[in-house]
């Protein structure tokens, strides 16, 4: 090798080292999200959006979990289905009220769970400081009051029930810290929503007629049981994705206290009870033997809900880490919506096409959620 070549090699080596030092290897995919998350958090905390500004509304919409608004929507509709037929305009207005109620309620409860959300869901605008807690509280309470006002127009008994539900949402966090209370406490609030839906269809009546109006629908207890155990299962499965955050912040949920396997068996019991209850409600609608167009759709919804339930429970038993939990949680939500859709269509066959579109919209919303592992 010539001297010129050796000299050139010596001069190039340090440059190569300096160049390698200046250009680190590309980060893992998750590192980009951590870096961008940190930058977004710093920027958002410096300048929180003003209430009702465009930035606030976008952040608040994320906080509402648009993909889960379908849960409250179908809950209210299932209650309405077991009552008298309402005009199409009233049905659509009430469906919208039920649809939005979950989002307002979810945003309200988020205001009291910032500690665990900071660890398990740092992407949320409320955690990042992009929107302020006091503004979220004000908009959430105002939204729930607005929803309650719409529901009260159709039945004054909905006023105390709506107030009870809002009080339950605001007081949920302490109960989540107790392993024996969280799923049940959350579930009774959703049962109240289903009952409100039913009373909207029943209409106005005197206090003395209340018990009689409820007793006229023998399938109502079965539907309410399906709501209770189905939603309790969703809550319990949802705890799987937050185990480390709950443990760090003092939330003694069932998976934190007893572990994944025992919690999965409890979830199995909830799923079986929800499936049986919805099956009883559908059977009650079809027991007279009169087959109406649309009943076949109810049976398809029931079969699909049964399949989603089986898939959810099998996946839940295979979860070994909270990062895998979303694969089990998603079919739990699908099962809840499908089973209650079966009940609704069994009693209101004319709703079959609308609820099929409703479910397709839910599928699209699930695909558009901001974080795949968060449900």
Tell how many strands the DSSP assignment holds.
0
Overall tally of domains: 1
Shape: globular
Secondary-structure-based class equals mainly alpha
> Could you describe the largest sheet, including whether it forms a barrel?
none
The percentage helix is over 70%
- Pick out the low-confidence regions: 1-44
Query: What's the Cα radius of gyration?
Result: 25 Å
SSE sequence, one letter per element:
HHHHHHHHHHHHHHHHHHH
Task: Report the sheet-strand fraction.
Answer: under 5%
What do we call the CATH topology? Tetracycline Repressor, domain 2
N- and C-termini, Cα separation: 65 Å
CATH superfamily: UbiA prenyltransferase
**What oligomeric state is this?**
single chain
Compute the average pLDDT: 85
Determine the number of helices (DSSP H or I, runs of at least 4 residues).
19
CATH first level: which class?
A: Mainly Alpha
CATH architecture: Orthogonal Bundle
Secondary structure elements and pairings:
Layout: H1 3-22, H2 29-46, H3 54-63, H4 69-81, H5 88-110, H6 114-120, H7 125-128, H8 133-154, H9 158-170, H10 172-176, H11 182-202, H12 210-215, H13 220-239, H14 243-248, H15 254-258, H16 260-286, H17 295-318, H18 326-347, H19 352-367
